Amino acid sequence: MRYLTAGESHGPQLTVIVEGLPSQLSFAKEKIDWQLKRRQKGYGRGRRMQIESDQVEILSGVRFGKTTGAPVTLVIENKDWTHWQKIMDPYSSPEEAEKRRIPRPRPGHADLNGAIKYGHHDMRDVLERSSARETAARVAAGAVARLILEECGIQLASHVVRIGEIEAERVELPLADLIQQAEDSPVRCLDKEAAKRMMELIDQAKKEGDSLGGIVEVIVEGVPIGLGSHVHWDRKLDARIAQAVVSINAFKGVEFGIGFEAAKRKGSKVHDEIMWSKERGFYRATNRLGGFEGGMTTGEAIVVRGVMKPIPTLYKPLNSVDIDTKETFAASIERSDSCAVPAASVVAENVVAWEVACALLEKFPADTADELVEQVKQYRERTLRF
């Protein structure tokens, strides 16, 4: 299974093509739209979220509400396109576009590197594609993957662990309760007192023209033992999830389970003892390693955290250098968020969903959804008898 995305931040639309889905998979448009809506929520979001109301249009691969086995094409309209046609139309006038040309790269963005690499003297050609607007397309792809996971009894959740200097207290909850509490919180934080202080910190940063980053956590429950593989580096599922998370705009780090805390502990306080019962089969007494050993799932919940840096577009811009004059200027300002960590947790949730679904289909190749569900069911029964 694979997907491609195309489109610019201020172009007419984002396009997603998903290939490799089994046929006869119930395809609920409202579930895709719900994930897109979740991505647009969160305390600290900018003005664009008031413009866009993301929904998908299905152009191929679905008939009578089910997949056909052919590539699925999804389109997400950019409503802001109406204000940018003269600048972003494929055959727009260079003279018209010159009015909005960007010769000043913004620190922390792809602007300068992309301009040098691809020979652009208008950095809009870089920022339009490198914009986090593209994560809407990735969320749509992840939402499609979730349809597969749901059929196989696999559920996902995410929440915010930290924003700036404010860190939430750990709260142990059943997944359904965690999902509900995260959705009810403006910052997707389970600790109500910490959530209040996070919002105050976001207000302060916005007032100062600054931005904030943070840490998000994704949890996946119901994953069978043995997704991924130990036999080669590129088949290790935790490595693939790590790559997917760090590829999200502004993400700079990732950890599983206790993560970097493992460096401080002795081995006896890191590794998960193996247990067995007739009802559960093999399981772990703890889950410090976040559901992975040897690049494969252990059957425990996958627990992965990602670190998001503060958004680099600031309303009190940092200095940069004009590529034409080589003079120092304050970097240009594009419309931006003060804090996008809550929304980023939703993006992370969906990119993890994609990787888990891909690993599931690699282990259980299936032409139809029914075949997949039956294979997973039989495998779960076999692991109990191992």
From TrEMBL:
GO annotations of cellular component type: cytosol
Annotated region (Disordered), positions in chain: 92-111
Pathway involvement of the protein, from the record: Metabolic intermediate biosynthesis; chorismate biosynthesis; chorismate from D-erythrose 4-phosphate and phosphoenolpyruvate: step 7/7
GO terms, molecular function: chorismate synthase activity; FMN binding
Residues annotated for FMN binding in this entry: R129, S130, S131, N249, A250, G294, K309, P310, I311, P312, T313, R335
Organism per entry: Thermoflavimicrobium daqui
Catalysed reaction equations from the record: 5-O-(1-carboxyvinyl)-3-phosphoshikimate = chorismate + phosphate
Keyword Lipoprotein recorded: no
InterPro entries: Chorismate_synth (IPR000453), Chorismate_synth_AroC_sf (IPR035904), Chorismate_synthase_CS (IPR020541)
Keyword Oxidoreductase recorded: no
Protein name: Chorismate synthase
EC number(s) given by UniProt: 4.2.3.5
Residues given in the record as NADP(+) binding sites: R39, R45
Signal peptide: none
Keyword annotations of the record: Amino-acid biosynthesis, Aromatic amino acid biosynthesis, FAD, Flavoprotein, FMN, Lyase, NADP
Cofactors required: FMNH2
